[in-house]
Amino acid sequence: MWSGRALVLLRVALGVFLIMKSLSKWGWLLDATPLATRLTAWSTRADVAAASRAYAHLLIPGAPIFGRLVLLGELGGGLALIGGVWTRPVAVLSALMVLNFQLASGGLISVDFLADSSGLVVVAGLIALGLGGRNLPLSVTS
Fold first, then answer.
1. Residue ranges per domain, the chain?
2. pLDDT in tens, 38-73
């Protein structure tokens, strides 16, 4: 019983986190230039692994699509987690989205991932919800 309540608290907290992350990306709906600029900067950073640079470079042509998907994913995922709608699939997809961001930025293949506020703790929490978020209290669906 208490573990279910604890997971509800985690679900709501991660939902709020995703919504807060989405707030800075509203402009990406109309103009993905900020994302393209960020991806270009990440693809040229000498201080990150070559795999991260190559991945960021690969994403640059899709920036107009990815910019919208990131905003909708963070906002929609956050609202779904807060509301307890499709908790498990939303949590897994959100974890993949965060890992994608971490890989492109160079954070995933670095020790920084362990201390980054949107790194290990967020991914671990989302995976925990993906694994154990079935039939939680105050949920609309699993």
1. 2-132
2. 999 999 998 888 999 999 999 999 999 999 999 999
Residue in 92, 90, 88, 114 with CA at minimum distance from that of residue 102: 114
User: Quick check: 142 and 87 in contact, CB under 8 A?
Assistant: yes
Provide the residue type at 65 as one letter. Answer: I
* Neighbour-count burial of 32, counting CB atoms closer than 10 A to its CB (0-12 exposed, 13-18 middle, 19+ buried): buried
Run of H or E including 8: helix 2-22
Closest CA to 138 of 69, 87, 72, 97: 87
Percent of the chain with pLDDT over 90: 65
